[in-house]
Amino acid sequence: MLEIKNFSKSYGDKKVVDNLNLSVENGEIFGFIGHNGAGKTTTIKSIVGILDFEAGDILIDGKSIKNDEMACKRIMAYIPDNPDIYESLTGIRYLNFIGDIYKVDARLRETLIRQYADAFELTANLGDVIASYSHGMKQKLMIISALIHQPKLLILDEPFVGLDPKAAHILKQLMRELCDQGGSIFFSTHVLEVVEKLCDHVAIIKNGSIITEGSIDQVMGDQSLEEVFLELTDHE
Prior knowledge:
The chain is of the alpha/beta class and 236 residues long. The chain has helices at residues 40-47, 69-74, 91-101, 106-119, 135-147, 165-180, 192-198, 216-220, 225-235; strands at 2-11, 14-24, 29-33, 55-60, 63-64, 76-79, 153-157, 184-188, 201-206, 209-215. A six-stranded mixed sheet has the order 6-7-8-3-9-10, sandwiched between helices. The longest helix has 16 residues, at 165-180. It comes from Dielma fastidiosa.
């Protein structure tokens, strides 16, 4: 579903990601972890078409984000680390705006909005302007907007920041459900316990390069993911 091939990205003379290669299969939750500044967000923003890059390619369901950006964006959704959305709109107008962009059938859209808004306890607030929302409420709205067009690939950057424990639990359930239905997820987080319990596959990035990658069991061995992460990133 997602294939990153020989991907490199620089800002001026500084190379922040160097010859990165990885793939995410259908039905797989892939955790992408590393210290701040390791290259996680740069990689994610390149996957979703926000950043250009000078070397390599990124394929979404076999299509290049460089050469067929719109086809790629139609089948994926992105939840950034900061919910920067149109604060002058009400929650429901924003969700309908996203539904219109992706041409989601009106009846299906209504059903999915109700389902997800009820799950995240946001239904009563959908008529309020987004400017009145807390950070956590905005994050919930972003999650709902990402799910209503039923993406094949979901890209998340620190998705649990700002969520209360119940909302975080619901998001983890929805992530697993999407993959059980054949979708794929690629996400970054600093919450290693979530990666350990939720992910099928994991990669650790340091200074723009992958230092280990494999199934969660392969990477962990008989250690915790935290122990592996600290050992590799502190001494590699």
